[in-house]
Structure formats: structure tokens, C-alpha cells
Amino acid sequence: MKNRIKELRNKKAMSQSQFVQTFNELLVSEKMKPITVPTLSRWENSLNSPTDDMWRQLADYFNVSVSYIKGEIDEEYLESLIELAILFIFPEMILTYGEIELDDDCKPFIVIGILSQILKQLGYEPKREFQEVYIKAVNLAGDPITKSHLNDFEAVVDKFMPKFQGITDNLLKAYNSL
Fold first, then answer.
1. What percent of the chain has pLDDT over 90?
2. What is the mean pLDDT of residues 64-87?
3. Could you give phi then psi for residue 95, rounded to 5 degrees?
4. pTM for the predicted model, two decimal places
5. Distance in angstroms (rounded) separating the CA atoms of residues 103 and 84
6. What DSSP string runs through 12-73?
7. Rounded Cα distance, 33 and 60, in Å
8. How far apart are the C-alpha atoms of 116 and 127, rounded to whole Å?
9. Is the N end or the C end of the chain the one with fewer CB atoms within 10 Å?
10. What fold is seen in the domain 5-70?
11. CATH 1.10.260 region(s) of the chain?
């Protein structure tokens, strides 16, 4: 299994030495033992593996999940989530989920739920990512009615955010059984 330490370091355009220097500052502030460039190199090449505590520090540093930085993302699950999201994009199509009709009014919330699971798989915090997009949407909205509608939309998403994984997993089971 190939981890993503080198990939994430390269995204920050940092050499191994630069990364070790800044990461060690974080480690020292957390009262943890600093690392060396050879240690980082062994981690990046999967010759050695960081401790669980060090994985958490690395994930926090890069602002990703531990499973993401370790390279443990389930790609089949991601593909299924993307297929499910595409299904809910089709307009004028009413789907049923148990006794509930999932019409066009429900679809944006379901797609956000699916996207939140994709974001989790990729190592992002869905609520924070949604908030960033929401702020941009409000800034794009020119009139007060649209801004009010966006505020209502945000309130519903905030309410259901903790339930999205269960809802998405149940919809995925139904979809996969077709």
C-alpha cells in the first residue's frame, strides 16, 4: 500500500528538508520527537511506517484524514457514490426510497449527502467544504430573495449533515441491488 506523504508534500511545493523543518516545529510544539530527512524518505517510500500518533500529526499538518494520507481510500466505494450522484442529477425523474418519493426538491440534499461522503473518502471535512461553497454562493447571489433561499438551504443541510452517511449508504445499497 502506497501512502500519500510525498504527493501531499509535493502539492505544497516543499523539499524534504523544508517539510522536515516546518513539520518538526509542529512536533516540538506538540512535545513530540522531531523527525529527520532520512526518516521522511523511508516513510515516503513505504520502507518504514510512522506511528499512529505520527500519522495523526501528518494528517493534521496536511489537513486530510489519516486514511487518506495512508492511502486507504476505497476507490470502488467512491465510484459507486459518483454513479449514485449522477443518478440524482437527472431532472424530472421521481425515484422512490421505501415509501418516500425523491422528487426534484429532494435531489439537491441527497446529492450534497453523497458529495459529503465523497469528501470524507478524499480526506476532507464535508461541513467545512460546504461552508466555503455556501459563502461563495451567497456572494454570487445578487438579490435578497436568493440569499434568503440559500440561508434556508444551509439550515436544512446543517440539520441533516450528521445523517448523510446513513442515508447515502442505504441509497447505495438500493442502487447496487438493481
1. 35
2. 86
3. -105, 155
4. 0.59
5. 15
6. TT--HHHHHHHHHHHHHHTT-----HHHHHHHHTTSS---HHHHHHHHHHHTS-HHHHHT--
7. 16
8. 8
9. C
10. 434 Repressor (Amino-terminal Domain) (1.10.260)
11. 5-70
